[in-house]
Amino acid sequence: MTRSRRTTGLLLVGLLAALLVAGVGSYYASSHPDGLEWSAEQEGFLDTARDSAAADSPLADYAVAGVDDGRLSGGLAGVIGVAVTLVVAGGLTLLVRRRSADPADATR
Q: What is the pLDDT of residues 33-45, one digit of tens each?
């Protein structure tokens, strides 16, 4: 097996694991508030919180807008997040690799 085949296999296994954790793991995520919300509630200043600028975005609150089932919505949001992260990281990697290529190699 060549090195590139091993690398490709490793990347595919990593991608599958990330999608499983994002899609299936988030299906079982707790619906209870996180530590910051819990602390703010305990200290009595939770009602002073304001919505962020992204509160109306399609993936706000780790959910997909328009999907009524909360667990399914959270799982889809996780899978979409993995896909977006992969596209951005892959694009940046290609950009950096292209810019850092040896100019002498480009003329061959």
A: 678 888 888 999 9
